[in-house]
Amino acid sequence: MSDPKDTINIENVVASTGIGQELDLQSVAMDLEGADYDPEQFPGLVYRTQNPKSAALIFRSGKIVCTGAKSTDDVHESLGIVFDKLRELQIPVDDDPEITVQNIVTSADLGRNLNLNAIAIGLGLENIEYEPEQFPGLVYRLDEPKVVALLFGSGKLVITGGKQPVDAEHAVDKIVSRLSELGLLD
Amino acid sequence: MATRDIYETTFDEDVQCEPSSNTCPECNGHVATNVVETVCEDCGLVIADQQIDHGPEWRSFEDDDSNYERTGSPLTAARHDRGLSTTIGRRIDGKGRTLSGSKRCQLARLRREQTRGRFQSKAERNLAHGLGEVRRITSALELGDSIRDQACQLFRSAQNEDLLRGRSIEAMAAASVYGVCRCHGRPVARDDLVNVARVDHSGVTNAYKTLNRELGLPTKPVVPQSLIPKLASELDVDTRVCSRARTLAKRAHETAIANGCQPSGVAAACLYLASREHGQPLTQTQVAAAAGTTPATLRARHAELTEMIDGEVRITPA
């Protein structure tokens, strides 16, 4: 169905990389403007970029984690900015360090209300976590692609755990087909 | 796993003899056993004769009611050794005679070694501890024997899958009980479980999530109508109010008012509405407290319920 696929929106991309060089976070925090470093609260330095809006966590080992970006291109751009800032501080950074996308969180909309109880029974009670006492959404773990989908009563979905944007599309396809098979999509 | 197979080290004296099959090997007819022989009723083949009489070895003709038995209690999954344990008695022996001093000292030494040798491994000790916890929790919650046995079996499976590592045994015991109740569709309230078990909410939740996911339990989602009877008895309402509340809860479930909402909130709202309809009003705070939810949730579900009844309209959640 093309309708739910059109509503797929990437909400968050998390990527990790490393410059292969140990850093003295104290001095980086002093020289880099806009950096937050509170070793008692969190062992990493937090550097927030405005454009694209994201946060980079820089650790003493030289590893960097970037979260909050809205697309894979944004993540590459924001990490590029971080690398440039580090080069300005005379820290040797490779020309093109490897950036690995670890997690992509997407939202989608099936456009109709869902009867979560019936879905829980239909999809198999063994694959589903539905605890309305704890959380209003139904947790459906897929094997292929290896993602976790949260389904809500309004028909909105959240798909998390994917490493590529197409994982979300495959997941939505699978979910729509399984629900239509069971006749739960009216 | 490090727990041993009980039949390798102990034996069950009360051996039940079961026929190996119910069909004749030659003509596949029906096989019947009488006192003397096992015979096929269709072709007349004698399958087994010389039956062993498994009746008692002796009868007691004494005037007092002493009847010395050689057998013990039936096998049960609720004990770590399946019920095949040994207890060494104290002052008197099997026939009722008092023992001499030296004999009693010897028995004391044997008893000490027996207690020390009860567990072959740490895993068995943990199993015994966990099963004891399960038995205590099920008896405190007044759940039946079948639930107790199933919860014990679930605990054993959890131990076999190595899910006990890194989690407290009491939490896993409580989660086994909760899991079995959920599989039967008669959930026990988490608050009750937390009061009885020696763990807090997060421990039980975490353990139950792991159990559910790793063992793939077929747990049915909690439906509001299953919570009504307990709520009604706690608030001491009429049976008419209770049955009206149950009908309302079933309708709410079918028309998807309860979709994604806390079932205790829906149950509380149904009971509140039913009690007001029958002229026995309960306060919102009372009902909400008994259900473990807040008056605000109760009011929200109550508003949806009244809409459903008045207009008979299918409520679509926002």
From TrEMBL, chain A:
* Gene3D superfamilies for the chain: TATA-Binding Protein
Gene Ontology biological process terms in this record: DNA-templated transcription initiation
Q: Which UniProt keywords apply?
A: DNA-binding, Repeat, Transcription, Transcription regulation
Kindly give the InterPro entries that the UniProt entry links to this protein.
TBP, TBP_archaea, TBP_CS, TBP_dom_sf
What family name appears in the similarity comment? Belongs to the TBP family.
Q: What is this protein called?
A: TATA-box-binding protein
Any one GO molecular function term: DNA-binding transcription factor activity
sequence repeat ranges per the UniProt record: 10-86
Function description: General factor that plays a role in the activation of archaeal genes transcribed by RNA polymerase. Binds specifically to the TATA box promoter element which lies close to the position of transcription initiation.
Query: What gene name does this entry carry?
Result: tbp
Specify the species.
Answer: Haloprofundus marisrubri
Keyword Manganese tagged: no
- Domain of life, per lineage: Archaea
From TrEMBL, chain B:
- Tell me a Gene Ontology molecular-function term this record carries: zinc ion binding
**Locate the Cyclin-like domain: which residues?**
132-213, 226-307
Cite a GO CC annotation. Answer: transcription preinitiation complex
Give the residues the record marks as binding Zn(2+). Answer: C24, C27, C40, C43
Q: Please list the residue ranges covered by the sequence repeats.
A: 132-215, 226-307
SMART domains noted in UniProt:
CYCLIN (SM00385)
**Any GO BP:** transcription preinitiation complex assembly
Keyword set, alphabetical order: Initiation factor, Metal-binding, Protein biosynthesis, Repeat, Transcription, Transcription regulation, Zinc, Zinc-finger
Q: Which purpose does this protein serve, as stated in its record?
A: Stabilizes TBP binding to an archaeal box-A promoter. Also responsible for recruiting RNA polymerase II to the pre-initiation complex (DNA-TBP-TFIIB).
Entry's family note: Belongs to the TFIIB family.
Q: What is this protein called?
A: Transcription initiation factor IIB
